[in-house]
Specification:
single chain, alpha/beta, Rossmann fold, Dihydrodipicolinate Reductase, domain 2, seven-stranded parallel sheet
């Protein structure tokens, strides 16, 4: 068994001097960018952050060959605080950050409904991208992001950091290479789907461009418990902005299933639900809740892959899954694995498996290294898109309540017009992602 906590992130102090530590960038019209950028093998890489909230702050432990030079956030004061710490430029509109010649690459740590468009624009601007998971709000957005990365030859890393954790890498490889024999069944976590929100209006904080925060979605009145990701309950639980914990935690756990089964460039072919009909609640007022608490009714979701393996979302771990194999039962979670057969585990670990812990920022290090080498990162945009797609398929199966056949090549449901309408969503102008 390997069970350890993730190493604490360190804070690097950066000393880049830019024209003004409190520079404010004004809004610019939405446009397609055409600049091409490439960083030399020995160059210091300048990073811009799009989003300056909780998750962005957790992603600022950059390798020493990279430095923060600019920060954009729709809440300007947040951008200014972070930019001042790193002696960088603060912007309210990320498009101005993308116009900066000094910026080589961007980290996108925004709500889910704001992942695709900045990523596509960054690729068009010649910037490489690290985009938080889940990569997308819809399946269609994912294909658009992959297309942009390939067209503009950009390095795009998905923030599925378990791809850079040694325990996950070793355990998924054992399954993929058949070291445990044939996979008989996979059991994942029964992640909650998103809910509906009808919160009352609150006064919008000074300096927050709430209309831009709403982005592609139909604008609604500001409420702080929407603005904060996991508040009471926060935007991550509401369908307008997210796929709920099905995409929140599911982007970790179901990504591990894809990896272990060798399905990084494809996905399941059938999806259905079992149990009580899905009945998502609507919240008219904020309600405090513990993280991960399951509200409403969530039928189990089942996926069948073309090779016959079935994945059931039931009582598995949130950051991985249980792989029931011919030679044993393997549990994979975040930075953790355990085999139910101690003898088999000892046998596999005797084969000079390197279980040296990572320093804690390995995923960012992989991205920076790939920016220089131009090799694809461990969680390439195609991988992130495919893993997010599995999450979206689970939500769509619950929403339709019927068995669905999925074509992972065409990325369409077979013979189901109404289900195919859920592959994408109507997007408010001028925030459409069809800009490549």
């Amino acid at each position: 068994m390997l069970n350890r906590s993730i190493a604490k992130r360190r804070t690097f102090l950066h000393t880049l001097a830019i024209a003004s530590t409190a520079a404010i960038c004004k809004s610019a019209p939405l446009k397609a960018f055409a600049a091409k950028g490439r960083v030399g093998a020995n160059d210091l890489i300048n990073i811009g952050y799009i989003g300056a909230g909780r998750r962005a702050l957790q992603l600022m432990d950059l390798p020493p060959e990279a430095r923060i030079v600019a920060v954009a956030d729709v809440h300007l004061s947040r951008a200014e605080v972070v930019a001042k710490k790193y002696q960088g430029v603060a912007c309210q509109d990320y498009r101005k950050l993308l116009d900066m010649k000094d910026v080589d690459a961007v980290v996108i740590a925004t709500p889910d409904h704001w992942h695709a468009l900045p990523s596509i624009h960054a690729c068009q601007a010649g910037k490489d991208v690290y985009c938080e998971k889940p990569l997308t709000l819809t399946i269609r957005e994912g294909r658009q992001m992959v297309d942009a990365a390939r067209r503009y030859q950009r390095i795009v890393q998905t923030g599925s950091q378990q791809r850079s954790m040694v325990a996950n890498r070793v355990a998924c490889q054992w399954v993929r290479e058949g070291r445990l024999g044939k996979v008989l069944e996979v059991i994942g976590s029964n992640y909650p789907s998103p809910w509906y929100c009808d919160f009352p209006a609150q006064e919008t904080p000074a300096g927050l461009d709430w209309d831009m925060w709403c982005g592609q979605t139909i604008p609604r009145a500001f409420h702080n418990d929407i603005f904060i990701s996991r508040s009471n309950p926060g935007w991550i639980s509401f369908r307008q902005y997210s796929g709920g914990e099905m995409t929140g935690w599911g982007a970790h756990g179901l990504d591990q299933v894809q990896w272990a089964l060798g399905m990084d460039e494809t996905g399941p072919v059938e999806i259905w639900t079992e149990g009580t009909k899905f009945d998502p609640p609507k919240y008219a007022m904020p309600e405090p809740r513990a993280r991960g608490e399951k509200l409403g009714t969530y039928p189990e979701v089942l996926f069948r892959y073309a090779n016959g393996v079935t994945l059931r979302l039931a009582d598995g771990p949130p950051g991985g899954a249980i792989f029931v194999c011919e030679r044993g039962r393997l549990t994979i979670d975040r930075a953790y694995f355990k085999l139910d057969s101690p003898e088999l585990e000892k046998e596999l670990l005797r084969e000079q498996v390197d279980l040296t812990p990572e320093p804690g920022n390995e995923h960012l290090k992989n991205w920076i290294a790939c920016i220089k080498s131009r090799n694809r990162p461990v969680a390439d945009v195609e991988i992130g898109h495919r893993s997010a797609t599995v999450c979206h398929l689970g939500n769509i199966a619950r929403e339709t309540g019927r068995k669905l056949k999925w074509d992972p090549v065409a990325e369409q449901f077979v013979g189901d017009v109404s289900a195919n309408q859920l592959v994408s969503r109507e997007q408010r102008a001028p925030y459409q992602t069809d800009v490549t």
